[in-house]
Amino acid sequence: MKRTTIFLVVLVTLSLLLGACQPAATQAPAKSAPAATQAPTEAPAVEPVATEAPADNPVVFERSETLYTSGTQWGPPSSWNPFNGGGYAMGTIGLVYETLYTYDPLADKFAPWLAAADMTWADEKTMEVKLREGLTWSDGQPLTADDVKFTFELADPNGAYKASLNYVRLWNFLASVEKVDDVTVHFKFNETPYQEIGVFFYQTPIVPKHLWETKDVADITGGANEKGVGSGPYLFESNDQSRQVLVRNENWWGIEAFGKAPAPKRIVDIVNGSNNVALGLVLQGGLDLSNNFLPGVASLVKGGYGVQTYYPEAPYMVSANVATLIINEQVKPLDDVNFRRALAYSIDVSDIVENDYTGLVRAADPTGMMPTQDKYIDKEQLAELGWTYDPEKAKQILAAAGYKDVDSDGFVEAPDGSKIALKVTCPSGWTDWMAAIQIISKGAKAAGMNIEPDYPTQAAWRDAQLQGTFELSIQNEAQMSSTIFNYYNWIFQNPPTQEHVAAAQFGNYGLYDSPEGFALLNELGAVSLGDDEKLQEIASKLQKITLTDVPTIPLWYNGLWAQYSNAVWTNWPSAAEDANHYLPASWRGYWNLSGIQMLMELEPAVQE
Amino acid sequence: MRRYFGRKLLIYLLTFFIAVTVDWMIPRFMPGNPVALLISRAGLRGNAVTEMYTFYLDAFGLDLPIWKQYLSFWAALFQGDLGISIYLFPTPVKDVILRAVPYDLALLIPSTLLSWWAGNKFGAFAARSKKLDNTILPVGYILTATPYMWLGILLAWVFAIVLGIFPVAGGYGFDLQPDLSWRFIGSLIHHWFLPFASLFIVQFGGWAIGMRNLIIYELESDYSHYLEALGAPRKLVRRYAFRNAILPQLTGLALSLGAVVAGALTTEVVFGYPGIGYLILQAINNEDYFLIQGCFLFVVIGVLLANFIIDVAYLIVDPRTRAGMQGGAG
Predict the structure, then answer these.
(1) Which residue among B37, B161, B196 places its CB closest to the CB of A283?
(2) What average pLDDT does range A301-326 have in this prediction?
(3) What is the pLDDT of residues B69-78, one digit of tens each?
(4) Taking phi first (over 0 means left), then psi (-120 to 50 degrees means alpha), and beta for anything else, what does residue B56 get?
């Protein structure tokens, strides 16, 4: 037996050596040494045996000065490039790089951020943005009109860089960006400004010209931008596989401008793991703001666990986007409006809301307008044309349109006698959506429509939309936005003529064709910012189309999942009258939707 | 000896080539398009989409004909280049793996080896001992049969949330910056213990049961009866039985150790422990060809290496292998 023991000892030593060979900075080199010297039953508190005594001045983040967040990052932080839209580390836009404006969806208001005041119009086609005085980058350089001009010109299709950034679309309307003086920028437009331009002024991060002008295009669009220099209230400090750490920028321009800095000295964002981990962290007080979807969080809010949500009652969460059943109008019988209408009547959304989501979401309005866009709903028309859950009505519509169960298998056949077998899909592992499509399938079957749930991988699910090979699917891409154009653009986008993947990336995957709708969408885009009357008029016409034609079926409003603890930080947003009404969100794109204002309002809890 | 290893080496090389080729092929046969997914996540619109699509295809070399991709894959591999992760763009796959794997090694190697050692000792000890057979072994059965996920969640819930003695998640405290300090090392161990213990418990049961059954089998064999008939002391008989029974267990150990690089997915999920397992899951979900490839490459190497080590170990622990080889050489 001795030999086996020797062999074991060799293996253990080998494992230690392997364990010790790690890249610097992310992990401590002495990591696995204590692991092996420890017998499995020993208490973990026992001091590890190491040959060299480590120095004893660890960097420890004081709990009372640190804000712990999670819900944004689904993998180790890998990019700090504000132009890497879906992959940048938490806070890259909003906390490190800043935008000219922010937009508060609940109040439906723009607020100047880097800009000193609201946008004004120098003439009909020239928009003027004035910057605040004394803006600086974290390396001490001033932030001026040059940086703003540089940032917007990066995407100019006729400019020096021609970078494919998402505001390249702005250049469809933009002729030039001009610097008037150090704090004044003129945006000269070719056409009457569109509804959609607003979003670019609260979504586009301003980057420092002096550091970015030497980069090549590939580096601008795809570079990791480690240790990036921004202008915001926080700086990138460190990161590893499971976290991103930001530290407060003590020289931030806003300290003077707003009279205060955000209270947390550090923000540590924890990479999402499983639900039970997020839940455990919330319960143990290790997480201050969790933007994870935690099923059943309602019982924590009610149960005295010190967990707070925006509303103390159902639906608990602010609505963030519309989960919609998207329909491929190119597939029989989904090309038949009667079938689509019958489907809309067959879905028991309240079952999804109450049982799948335990009341954490709201049922969507058939128009798909978010609660914040309520004023754009034509209520009279809705009462006349809208639908509700009504299986009998679904059966009637099917029967009237000639759908009959010919072979008595319990499911109807198409009027031409062909069998119907459809699939409704969502990505595998998205458990809330998986339960939802089971409910959809159940309702459809009860009304005689043979629709089965199916759960491909996320990539396959997405690919089916881009290739137009899906039949029915759930999507929630249309997020809350400063304009309803965003939502209608998602439905009424001109079907692409050439390559499917390129043009239909955002919406209308089913190639729904409605010349009238497309024309109305263009009209909607041309409405000047703030002309609500005109918007309502066009919205009403668009709603008439979506309600009669049923190109998509809005199901429920996905929540802005947010549960927070008052143990270390207080003054969180809430629906209560005396509280602030900003969005409690750390998601990408949400710091500029008043998330940053929420952060500025946080106060340290009084420690007893 | 040389012939023995020469033959083994050839088999290993062939296996490596085939396994790596399959590893390269499989993600590419999955339905879906990783670049399209990457772009949808970036929330791009309009013509930016087309441009970025071409940019990424080019960056990942996915616009080349498939046979060229395969050749350049091997060429890059020999230069130690595993490509760039799609899902963690623009981090090189090698960095992603090197950052994650140490956690797995530190967790899985000690738990596998210690549970193997303790499990075998205990199994051998318990075999044919009525009291232990009737008391502790059933516990082993229960432990091995318990769904690991459930056991893990139970441990996390009791020790982390109810009792609060261990942390809920992470490789070390979320309030620490890695450095060589007692506090940091303490935090590493503190976070390491619960995942380790859960793995140890489950594996221990498995090894113990296996060993117990093997010992009983050996004790029933002719040589044991012969020894007993000769009047050999019970202890000696059992020792011979153990030496024979350990061989299949050794092969089992090789397989477990080889897969160590693949991490322990459920452990990492339940305890929010950093490691490669969770990354592999994410890579598959995101169809990250290069990360999947890279991870499984390490698994292939790990399994082959472990098998090789066991081949050597057999020479040491099983005199018959040595004898056979000498016979072959002579």
Answers:
(1) B161
(2) 91
(3) 888 888 888 8
(4) alpha
Cα(A347)–Cα(A365) distance, integer angstroms: 13
- C-alpha–C-alpha distance, residues B145 and A480, integer Å: 48
Find all residues with CB under 8 Å of A27, minimum gap 6, and list them: A240, B99, B102, B103, B171, B178
Nearest CB to B286 within list A68, A268, A458? A458
A240 touches chain B (CB under 8 A): yes
Q: Coil, strand or helix: which one is A362?
A: strand
**A 526-585 → B contacts, CB under 8 A:** none
Residue-wise pLDDT for A197-237, tens only, equals 888 999 999 999 999 999 988 889 888 999 899 999 999 99
Cβ contacts from A onto B, under 8 A: 321
Q: Per-residue pLDDT tens for A370-429? A: 988 999 999 999 999 999 999 999 999 999 999 999 888 999 999 998 999 999 999 988
What's the whole-number mean pLDDT along residues A7-23?
43
3-class state of residue B202 by DSSP? helix
Residues of chain B above pLDDT 90, percent: 8
- Contact state of B117 with A284 under an 8 Å Cβ cutoff: no
Please state whether beta strands A66-70 and A101-104 pair in parallel, antiparallel, or not at all (unpaired). Answer: unpaired
| B325 interfaces chain A, CB cutoff of 8 Å | no
- Supply the pLDDT for residue B259: 75
ipTM, two decimals: 0.84
Answer whether B180 touches A (CB < 8 Å).
yes
Choice between A283 and A35, residue whose per-residue pLDDT is larger: A283
CA-wise closest residue to B262 among B283, B248, B286: B283
CA distance A110 to A199: 10
Q: What is the pLDDT of residue A528?
A: 82
Contacts of B288 in chain A (CB under 8 A): none
A558 close to A476: Cβ distance less than 8 angstroms:
yes
Inter-residue contact A271 to A70 (CB < 8 Å): yes
CA A509 – CA A443 distance, rounded (Å): 24
Is pTM, for the whole model, over 0.90? no
Contact B248, B53 (CB under 8 A): no
Rounded to the nearest 5°, which phi and psi values hold at B100?
Answer: -95, -40
Residues A165 and B47: their CA atoms lie apart, in Å, by 9
Pairing of strands A569-570, A603-604: antiparallel
Secondary element (H or E) of residue A559: strand A552-559
d(C-alpha B282, C-alpha A274), whole Å: 12
Helices (H), A275-368: 275-283, 297-302, 337-346, 349-351
CA distance B62 to chain A (A): 16
Closest CB to A4 among B102, B161, B246: B246
Which residue from B41, B110, B175 is facing A36, i.e. has the nearest CB? B110
Instruction: Confirm or reject contact between B193 and chain A (CB < 8 A).
Output: yes
DSSP letter string over A516-551?
HHHHHHHHHHTSPTT-HHHHHHHHHHHHHHHHHH-S
Mean pLDDT of chain A: 86
CA distances to A126, A181, A188, A206, A542 from A148, rounded to whole Å, are 16, 12, 14, 6, 36
- φ, ψ at A459 (rounded to 5°): -65, -40
Q: Do B178 and A240 touch (CB under 8 A)?
A: yes
Are A502 and B177 in contact (CB < 8 Å)? no
Are the C-beta atoms of residues B294 and B97 closer than 8 Å to each other? yes
Structure confidence by residue, pLDDT tens digits, A475-509:
998 888 888 998 998 898 876 554 554 445 678 88
How high is the pLDDT of residue A505?
66
Q: Are A277 and B168 in contact (CB under 8 A)?
A: yes
